[in-house]
Design goal:
The chain has a 6-stranded parallel sheet with strand order 2-1-3-4-5-6, sandwiched between helices. Strands 14-15-16-18-17 form a 5-stranded mixed β-barrel. It has 479 residues and is α/β, with parallel strands linked by helices. It is 34% helix and 22% strand. It has helices at 14-29, 56-72, 83-87, 89-93, 110-120, 140-143, 192-196, 204-216, 242-252, 270-278, 295-301, 307-318, 342-354, 382-410, 443-449, and strands at 5-10, 33-34, 45-51, 77-82, 100-102, 132-134, 174-181, 200-201, 221-226, 257-260, 285-291, 328-335, 359-364, 413-419, 426-430, 436-440, 453-463, 470-476. It has 15 helices and 18 strands. It has 3 domains: 5-146, Rossmann fold; 156-408, Alpha-Beta Horseshoe (pyruvate-formate lyase- activating enzyme); 412-476, OB fold (Dihydrolipoamide Acetyltransferase, E2P).
């Protein structure tokens, strides 16, 4: 069929962001272009929602987004893919406004499947009603009776096509590189192993080749991501080998900055910390998938560690050499999990006050149908969950404020700020230890500063009204 325009919406994790980049690259390769915001005569339109299914609310957001796209673009083909499409295709197929459902196992061939189907049945001939489920996707009712390891999942070599994702985007500052897919953990609140399958890893030689291509295209920072990157290499080796892979990237490529996405406390190994301590290009920044510091709650969640492992991990990180502000440690925390009493929550707050970290990503527990957690006793009322989440968010903002105030007081000069795309009359970026910095600039100056490493002088601390996070307003220290 002839090419047209597309709209691509992404929900959920960084792995989904990566997947959407690949979908977009394939659409562009076939002549499709992002929708300009204005209708064009005889211009076909495809709207893709890359879904998340980590909670029931995430499922509702997927259906809501698809419905809104259908309302705004009634002539478009509405496609839902991602974890929601893999886990519960029947419900999505029956949802208003959705025309095609494609699960994660076929996401890598989504563009081919959709273009082929649209060519066979153009919009004018398409019947209203139930969406078509394309590919191998089966429903969650069957999946709970069959382990995802028994299902047919694509090889990562056929799916992780990172060299094409930067096509036409030279000078891009940061890229996500997915090295691993799937999860073997089966936490009681999580359905993702059914949506992403068992852990599979991209071989080191393939990872290195993709890093080199991205560097050649101007990428200065790469974020290593996946469903559970701490399991990297366990599908073909005797033990995880994330630390060995990162050492190879730093030792065998010209990449200037490297970050890693979420890791469990036990996955932040001594070898990983040693690598960060001796290699300045390995950014002093961790995102810890904590969920709770309480051993009993962690056991209910079926996490693979307890409080002592959490404390040991955070204290070892805090001992590393780092720029002003220390190693940045963001942590995911779920509050209001079934069985978490008021006393448990107060203990959690007191414990977190004593531990070294930088920012909390707080989530009030949200049910996901079909997970064991929904059958646990001690359900916490929804309003109580929200109140606890607000308290933890305040704790996080107070901690982050103290860190920023200390940096401003002790060392207002920051170097190695990697600036990203300008927006309006300013441009922003991050220090190696993930402190955000914004600079005023004209559009001409901003274009010249994009993707540059600069030194700045901090002027003041501000709150980002969009994210609620803190940032430094600064001025550029030109050479």
């Amino acid at each position: 069929m002839k090419s047209g325009s597309y709209i691509l919406k992404t929900l959920g994790c960084k792995a989904n962001v990566y997947d959407s980049q690949l979908i977009e690259a394939e659409l562009r390769k076939r002549g499709w272009k992002p929708w300009s915001g204005e209708p064009e005569p005889d211009d076909a339109l495809i709207c893709v929602v890359n879904s998340c299914t980590v909670t029931d609310e995430a499922d509702r957001q997927t259906r809501k987004m698809a419905s809104r796209l259908f309302r705004d673009h009634p002539e478009a083909s509405i496609v839902v893919t991602g974890c929601g499409a893999e886990v519960d295709p029947e419900r999505l197929a029956a949802s208003k406004g959705i025309h095609y459902v494609i699960g994660n196992r076929d996401k890598h061939q989504l563009v081919e499947l959709i273009l082929e189907r649209i060519a066979q049945a153009p919009q004018s001939a398409r019947s209203e009603g139930r969406a078509e489920v394309l590919g191998k996707t089966e429903g969650y009712v069957e999946m709970i009776s069959r382990h995802p390891m028994d299902r047919e999942w694509p090889l990562v070599e056929s799916v992780f096509a990172a060299p094409s994702l930067q096509e036409g985007q030279s000078g891009k500052t940061r890229a996500f590189l997915k090295i691993q897919e799937g999860c073997n953990s089966f936490c009681t609140y999580c359905v993702i192993p059914y949506g992403r399958g068992p852990s599979r890893s991209l071989r080191p030689r393939e990872v290195l080749a993709q890093v080199r291509v991205l560097v050649e295209q101007g990428v200065r920072e790469i974020v290593i991501t996946g469903t559970n990157i701490g399991d990297y290499g366990t599908d073909w080796g005797e033990k995880p080998m994330l630390d060995e892979l990162l050492a190879m990237i730093l030792g065998e490529t010209a990449l200037e900055r490297l970050r890693v996405s979420s890791l469990d406390p036990t996955e932040i190994t001594p070898a990983l910390l040693s690598l960060m301590a001796r290699e300045k290009r390995f950014c002093p920044h961790f995102h810890v998938s904590l969920q709770s510091p309480d051993t009993r709650i962690l056991r209910l969640m079926k996490r693979r560690y307890g409080f002592e492992e959490v404390r040991g991990c955070l204290e070892r990180i805090a001992s590393l050499p780092a720029p002003s502000g220390g190693v940045f440690v963001g942590m995911d925390v779920i509050t209001g999990f079934p069985g978490e009493s008021a006393q448990d929550f107060e203990k959690t707050c007191a414990t977190l006050e004593k531990l070294p970290w930088s920012r909390l990503h707080v989530f009030p527990y949200s049910e996901r149908a079909g997970t064991p957690a929904t059958r646990l006793p001690g359900t916490v009322p929804t309003e109580e969950r929200s109140q606890r989440a607000r308290r933890l968010s305040e704790l996080s903002l107070n901690r982050l404020t103290r860190i920023h105030e200390a940096v401003l007081r002790q060392n207002p000069l920051l170097d190695s700020v990697l600036l990203e795309r300008p927006s309006g009359s300013s441009i922003s970026g991050y220090t190696p230890n993930y402190l955000r910095v914004a600079l005023p600039c004209s559009s001409e100056t901003g274009a010249g500063l994009q993707n540059q490493l600069v030194a700045v002088k901090i002027k003041e601390i501000q709150i980002d009204k969009n994210s609620g996070d803190l940032l430094f307003q600064a001025e550029w220290m030109a050479d």
